[in-house]
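A reminder from the course coordinator: this example appears on the midterm review sheet, so study it carefully.

Given structure:
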């Protein structure tokens, strides 16, 4: 397979020098000159002069031609031979860039694997390409943006340079003298999955993530004029001060830089500097008046065009985007960016896609950053290696603070290797305004001999941290418990910025516990926020196992979103907790005056730059009214009021929604405020009157009741519902109420009539039957249950009542409440109030990804219609803040018993207290007050002191 300059340029459309191409076209047209009409020949002569003039005025740009594709959405086939594992021992084809495991070769490895293939698995690549004769005399580099792991490159049988060791770093070889110009060239690459350098394996391969092999990032040629700009390093400050180091390879006389704004207009004057004889490094410096500053809220970018001159003639130009912003660390105070103290709302992110491993694309980068922005995040940490360049480009353009990290997990590179890789990382990434921190490895994977190089190689002198250490003025310790945090983590003297906290696993962590942690972070002046672990489940497509998605058990099931970006419940919790527009809780009482207390939690945005809209909805009729609210003039960190002018009939609606939208038209969050309360909703739904009478017969053990075609059986000894049937058949809802984590001591069961109603109830006894129930059967067939109960202990995981229902007969549900995602005690936020319909699924979070999950706890239930394989039935409540529990997700735990999804007995429950959920690294009760068990202090066994649940049942099948 061959690649030519012309077709690669046409295919990829990269900005390149067009002069040589235009001259080629001109020469081709001249060869047929005598065959053209005179008018056309005249136009060609004119074009010749124009081209000559153009080429003398415009500098050449670096030409970039891809030999591979540009990402997983655009690849090129190369010849390939794998030495071990699947499909080894024979030549075939492979997509480049890619990880060969995903292409059907070699063996899948998670970072802790030990197997016989390790060290033997290599990939041999071959590719043939052409370069034009016109490139003779230029400097031609071959560039690899990332290759796993040891990479040997040969051009026409000659090794291009020393073997490169290290996976995540762009490296290049000058192959000018190895090429055949105007002819075909043979590229041969040998890639070893594991390194011959043990320190590289310790830093990159023995880690808690999937280990892949292959040329996984793009490969391209770059052609530069003999005298050229190698690279630049820019420092653009918020006060307009600008400095750039320009590295050249030339005997030229001068370098200049001109800035351009986003609309293409020149910004400020051109700066220039003469090049001293024998020098290859030039400093350009000056100042600009009132530049638009870069921040995640307003990611303003400028294009800096550097030009190299020789005797007044431009010979090479080099473009680089930049942003004006200043980073300042104030000891024992905080991180100030553009003079504003920042708390980072961050997440850790791997370069990953399930069907292509570490090979991604700009499209994926855009999607990842947009999802982070949609969660109201302002920061991302590169764990545990530098990302693709296009990810940093997107962070620059859409706006995220970035912590860029030199590779390392619990091991680190040796000093010679680490020094080389650190320089490669710095050359590739130094100019991104989004990068505000460097990180030297992770969790003990710090080579301290490299620390000094970060400042020496970075023109901006950005701060550097050691994740998991109290180092350099930053306490970044991972997974500190909430109680530890408020007792000394937040009361030390270093700036507190955990680079990993609330370690997600399955459905635990992330949103669970976040509100407690964030409130502490907001309140403590030494807190600089932190970074959640981590962004997406690393479920990889197993081409050796019929395409299943494999997270290696709990190791890769750590994400807020699934492998293909499926949104878990925590996604919406984070979105609400981290919304920069904070609404204080407000009850929609009759005296509501339309005023909401709000707080501006932005850093650079006035709320008058945002927009607010409202919507009233009648959930029974879907009738609605909409409007907008005036944006309050609130500067960052100010509190004030948002006035919503509602129509006079607003109380005839069920819910008010208020949507806050940022200056870039991105929704921040839609808050919902119920207007109708459960008791009112129940009064409008429950039918009590009927034409027939309620009848009751007794057997030795049962009260058998009939009303309006409904047959019910109750235990005479316990009062528990034993059977439900209507004219269409049995509804298998039974065996309740059972008090959860309390005594099921209903006794002294009697029946009596109250007008046209029948009442079956227990008898209260302070010592032996202090929990009571009362069933009321109405002539309509509706049934009321009134339970008064006491939890067994003052600390309980659960408070509520359970019933039985066969899970295999459940098809779905429709309910009024907050949804559609399930909740935990420490993850309540993120849902909206409304009517939701959910089909049954048995999703196990982090192992299957059909969201929202059906099984679990659902908050603020008003009513629920259960859709079954037989016939539906409906449950309505008068209680506020009642949780509906549906079945039990699979119980999972670990050696520390941290992540434990706890559910009560039975199948369907109505709960007033539910448990929190833990993380991979903390038990639920150690992540804050919301995660603690439910408290019930009153031991006096008096009915007036009991908890109370009131439910209504419609078993008519309608």
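Designed residues:
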């Amino acid at each position: 397979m061959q690649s030519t300059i012309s077709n690669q340029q046409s295919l990829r459309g990269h900005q390149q020098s067009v002069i040589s191409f235009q001259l080629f076209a001109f020469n081709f047209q001249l060869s047929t000159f005598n065959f053209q009409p005179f008018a056309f020949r005249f136009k060609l002569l004119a074009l010749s002069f124009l081209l000559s003039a153009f080429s003398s005025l415009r500098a050449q740009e670096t030409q970039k031609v891809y030999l591979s594709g540009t990402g997983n959405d655009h690849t090129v086939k190369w010849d390939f031979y794998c030495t071990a594992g699947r499909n080894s021992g024979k030549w075939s084809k492979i997509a480049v860039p890619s990880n060969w495991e995903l292409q059907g070769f070699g063996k899948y490895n998670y970072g802790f694997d030990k197997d016989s293939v390790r060290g033997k698995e290599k990939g041999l690549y071959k590719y043939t390409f052409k370069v034009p004769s016109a490139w003779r005399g230029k400097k031609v580099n071959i560039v690899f943006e990332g290759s796993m792991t040891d990479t040997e490159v040969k051009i026409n049988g000659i090794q291009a340079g020393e073997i490169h060791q290290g996976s995540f770093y762009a490296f290049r070889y000058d192959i000018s003298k190895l090429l055949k110009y105007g002819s075909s060239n043979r590229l041969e690459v040998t890639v070893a999955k594991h390194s011959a350098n043990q320190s590289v394996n310790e830093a990159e391969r023995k880690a808690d993530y999937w280990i892949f092999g292959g040329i996984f990032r793009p490969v391209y040629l770059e052609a530069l004029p003999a005298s050229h700009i190698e690279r630049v390093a820019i420092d653009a400050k918020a006060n307009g001060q600008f400095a750039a180091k320009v590295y050249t390879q030339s005997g030229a006389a001068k370098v200049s830089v001109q800035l351009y704004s986003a609309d293409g207009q020149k910004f400020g004057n051109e700066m220039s500097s003469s090049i001293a004889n024998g020098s290859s490094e030039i400093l350009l410096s000056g100042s600009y008046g009132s530049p638009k500053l870069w921040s995640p809220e307003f990611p303003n970018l400028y294009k800096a065009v550097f030009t190299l001159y020789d005797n007044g003639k431009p010979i090479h130009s080099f473009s680089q985007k930049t942003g004006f912003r200043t980073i300042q660390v104030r000891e024992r105070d905080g991180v100030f960016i553009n003079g504003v103290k920042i708390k980072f709302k961050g997440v850790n992110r791997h370069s990953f896609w399930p069907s292509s491993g570490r090979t991604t694309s700009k499209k994926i980068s855009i999607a990842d950053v947009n999802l982070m922005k949609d969660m109201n995040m302002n920061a991302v940490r590169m764990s545990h290696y530098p990302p693709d360049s296009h990810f940093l480009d997107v962070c620059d353009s859409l706006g995220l603070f970035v912590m860029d990290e030199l590779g390392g997990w619990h091991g680190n590179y040796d000093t010679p290797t680490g020094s080389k890789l650190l320089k490669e990382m710095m050359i590739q990434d130094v100019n991104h305004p989004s990068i505000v921190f460097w990180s030297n490895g992770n969790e003990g994977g710090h080579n301290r001999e490299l620390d000094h190089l970060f400042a020496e190689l970075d023109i901006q002198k950005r701060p550097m941290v050691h994740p998991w250490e109290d180092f350099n003025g930053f306490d970044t310790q991972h997974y500190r418990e909430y109680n530890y945090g408020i007792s000394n983590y937040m009361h030390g003297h270093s700036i507190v910025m955990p680079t990993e906290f609330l370690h997600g696993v399955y459905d635990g962590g992330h949103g669970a516990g976040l509100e407690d942690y964030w409130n502490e972070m907001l309140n403590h002046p030494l807190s600089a926020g932190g970074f959640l672990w981590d962004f997406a489940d690393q479920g990889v497509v197993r081409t050796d196992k019929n395409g299943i998605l494999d997270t290696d058990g709990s190791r890769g099931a750590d994400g807020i979103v699934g492998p293909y970006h499926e949104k878990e419940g925590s996604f919406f919790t984070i979105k609400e907790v981290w919304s920069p527009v904070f609404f204080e809780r407000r009850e929609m009482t009759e005296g509501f005056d339309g005023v909401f207390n709000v707080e501006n939690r932005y850093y650079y945005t006035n709320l008058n730059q945002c927009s607010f809209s409202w919507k009233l909805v009648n959930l029974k009729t879907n009738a609605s009214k909409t409007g907008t609210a005036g944006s309050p003039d609130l500067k960052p960190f100010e509190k004030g009021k948002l006035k919503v002018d509602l129509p006079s009939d607003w109380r005839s609606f069920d819910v008010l929604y208020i949507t806050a939208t940022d200056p870039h038209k991105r929704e921040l969050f839609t808050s919902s405020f119920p207007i109708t309360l459960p008791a009112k909703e129940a009064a409008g739904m429950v039918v009590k009157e009927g034409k027939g009478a309620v009848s009751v017969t007794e057997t030795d053990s049962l009260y058998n009741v009939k009303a309006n075609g409904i047959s019910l059986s109750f235990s005479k000894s316990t009062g528990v519902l034993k059977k439900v049937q209507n004219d269409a058949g049995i509804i298998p809802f039974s065996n309740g109420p059972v008090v959860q984590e309390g005594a099921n001591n209903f006794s002294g069961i009697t029946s009596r009539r109250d007008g046209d109603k029948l009442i079956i109830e227990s008898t209260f006894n302070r010592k032996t039957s202090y929990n009571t129930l009362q069933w009321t059967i109405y002539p309509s067939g509706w049934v009321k249950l009134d339970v008064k109960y006491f939890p067994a202990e003052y600390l309980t995981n659960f408070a509520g009542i359970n019933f039985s229902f066969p899970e295999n007969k459940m098809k779905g549900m429709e309910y009024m409440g907050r949804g559609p995602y399930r909740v935990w005690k420490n993850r309540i936020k993120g849902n909206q109030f409304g009517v939701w319909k959910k089909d049954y699924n048995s999703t196990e979070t982090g192992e299957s990804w059909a969201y929202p999950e059906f099984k679990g706890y659902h908050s603020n239930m008003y009513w629920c219609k259960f859709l079954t394989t037989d016939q539906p039935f409906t449950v309505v409540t008068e209680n506020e803040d009642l949780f509906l529990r549906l079945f039990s997700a699979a119980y999972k735990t670990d050696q520390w018993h941290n992540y434990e999804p706890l559910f009560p007995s039975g199948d369907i429950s109505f709960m007033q207290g539910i448990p929190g959920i833990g993380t991979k690294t903390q038990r639920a009760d150690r992540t804050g007050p919301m995660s603690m068990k439910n408290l019930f202090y009153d031991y006096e066994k008096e009915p007036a002191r009991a908890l109370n649940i009131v439910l209504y049942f419609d078993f008519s099948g309608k």
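The radius of gyration is 34 Å. Residues 493 and 521 are 15 Å apart (CA to CA).
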